[in-house]
Amino acid sequence: MLVAVDIGNTNIVLGFIDGTRIVGTYRITTKVNHTSDEYGLMITQFLELSGFTPEDVADVIIASVVPKVMHSFRSSIVKFLDIDPMVVGPGIRSGIGIRLDNPRSLGADCLADCAGAFYSYGGPALVADFGTATTFNYVDATGNITCGLVTAGIRTAAAALWGQTAQLPEIEITRPRSILATGTKTAMQAGLYYDFLGGTERIIEQYHQEIGEEFTVIATGGLGSIVKDDISLIDVYDPDLIFKGMEHIYRQNVR
């Protein structure tokens, strides 16, 4: 079994992959001060919950955008699973070309998302990842990332709103029942939600306008599940897209 680890700014998500089948996914809050023992304990407990043992793990692959977490997390894999994990980064074979000004600036998560999208659904495709940041990356018909966009995620925008105002409370990010809000919390939820919908739709429309060819819009990311049903321009929502991409990258570099 392959364990794929997506280390993001808000959550660390683990995917247990048996062959090409994802048999379990688990989330951990990303915290810089977690020790390798704490991470290792969580990983072994998640394995047990899925009916596996550390001996069932053949290898581990990590895609991380949080360098400060990597030392303790990587150490936990070495200590508890006796595996030196493969890390998605510069020099790794992905089967995806990066035609950007600075290819090394592309996040490991974006590369894995694009690999998952292209090899699962084909190209051209616009890959949208709704996380702490919302990213859009365009993969052409031959598997090259040619352009991208980064903006604030809906939770990040919400945190800025209540963090910079004296009387606005912290709220849950959720789909509002109506835009006709009658209280502060529901007004914030509706405002954030519909503002985010409108911005996302406008971005996709602009890509259609400037690219001038048909493409598939593939969305992923934890916050994508909240908005996916209200954005008709999204063709596919795949919460496991990054794991599919990491499994493909792993096979390209298998040791």
Number of β-strand runs? 11
End-to-end span in angstroms? 14 Å
| Average of the residue pLDDT scores | 93
- Under CATH, the topology of the largest domain is which? Nucleotidyltransferase, domain 5
**Strands across the major sheet, in which order?**
6-9-8-7-10-11
Unreliably modeled segments: none
Number of helices: 7
Overall shape: it is globular
The number of distinct structural domains comes to: 2
Q: Identify the CATH architecture of the largest domain.
A: 2-Layer Sandwich
Task: Outline the structure in words.
The chain has 2 domains: 2-87, Nucleotidyltransferase, domain 5 (2-Layer Sandwich), CATH 3.30.420.40; 97-246, Nucleotidyltransferase, domain 5. The chain contains 7 helices and 11 strands. The protein has helices at 36-49, 67-81, 108-121, 154-163, 184-211, 224-227, 241-252; strands at 2-7, 11-18, 21-29, 59-64, 86-87, 97-98, 125-130, 133-139, 144-152, 216-220, 236-237. It has a 6-stranded mixed β-sheet with strand order 6-9-8-7-10-11. A 5-stranded mixed β-sheet has the order 3-2-1-4-5, sandwiched between helices. The chain is globular, with a radius of gyration of 19 Å.
